[in-house]
Amino acid sequence: MIKAIIIDDEPLARSILKEYAANTHGMEIIAECNDGFEGLKAIQQHSPDLIFLDIQMPKINGFEMLELIEEPPAVIFTTAFDEYAIKAFEQNAIDYLLKPFSKERFDKAIEKLIQANGKPSVQHIIDEAAASATQQNRVVVKEGSRIRIIPVSKIQYIEAADDYVKIYTEEGGFLKNRTMSFYERSLLPFHFIRIHRSYIINTQLITRIDAYEKDSHLVKLNTGAALPVSKTGYAKLKEALGI
Fold first, then answer.
1. Is there a contact between 192 and 203 (Cβ–Cβ < 8 Å)?
2. How far apart are CA 94 and CA 185, in angstroms?
3. pLDDT average per 10 residues of sequence, the chain (243 residues)
4. Phi, psi at residue 12, to the nearest 5°?
5. Is 140 inside any structural domain?
6. Per-residue pLDDT, 13
7. Are residues 45 and 125 located together in one domain of the fold?
8. CA 134, CA 146: separation in Å to the nearest integer?
9. What per-residue confidence (pLDDT) applies to 115?
10. Which member of 141, 146, 227, 242 has the greatest number of CB atoms within 10 A?
11. Is residue 236 domain-shared with residue 207, that is, in the same domain?
């Protein structure tokens, strides 16, 4: 028995998925959710085998929701017009349903899932989506049972933290399951600079740069933070600041 959850903000889409699933042998819809917040809670509560996940939703989108789950279940995406996502799906062992979709198309997606014999990885698609222009203006983090949406403009600096990074804002630091290299690539160049293997800073907050020991410097932000700058990082800073 495949236990599935529907996460979609459109009542009609949820209704159609429930109808198709009810007429599919070996499938049970155990929950339906109106947005990504509800979806995240339902996944944690029910541990489904499969989720039908809408991409465009209020609050947080489908990709952002998946970023908050350490081990996502199998996913069949549903979308009305996301051409970017469709291109990504076609290159991976994951299916999508382009709205409106027929029962025949639904059945093909389920068959593809069964043939995959497990949970096809969604990490590549999550990474690609997170680096897209539509998601570069904010970061979604999980803080206990709460979800925070952090505008990129509010990030003061990012610090390496083992397999995570710690994103600092005026409200404190928040862990995110991402790498420093990811943010070095995806954040706006010159606005955010990797000054050290362990730090990326918001250059708009710099107040001064001081010499510190041999071939190194300290950068001071208007928040009071003082962070080390490597030789390579200093060269990047000089280029970004025109000094």
1. yes
2. 25
3. 95 96 95 95 94 90 89 87 63 75 94 77 72 76 88 96 94 92 86 95 95 87 95 91 81
4. -65, -45
5. no
6. 95
7. yes
8. 23
9. 84
10. 141
11. yes
Give pLDDT, residue 118. Answer: 63
Whether 235 maps to a domain, the answer reads yes
Q: Give CA–CA dist 117/122, Å, rounded.
A: 15
Q: Under a CB-based contact definition with an 8 Å cutoff, are residues 26 and 2 in contact? A: yes
Helical (H) or strand (E) element with 153: none
Residues 167 and 79 in one domain: no
Domain-located, residue 65: yes
Q: Which of 68, 97, 130 is the last residue in one of the domains?
A: 130
Range of the domain at 58: 2-130
Question: How is residue 170 written in tokens?
Answer: 């005026």
Domain contains 161: yes
| Residue 70, both tokens | 């350490």
**Chain centre to alpha carbon of residue 47:** 20
Nearest to 180 by CA among 196, 168, 204: 196
Q: CA–CA separation, 153 vs 169, rounded Å?
A: 9
Tokens 């000094």 correspond to what residue? 243
155 and 103 housed in the same domain: no
Number of domains in the chain: 2
Three-class secondary structure of residue 219 per DSSP: strand
Q: How far apart are CA 180 and CA 221, in angstroms?
A: 20
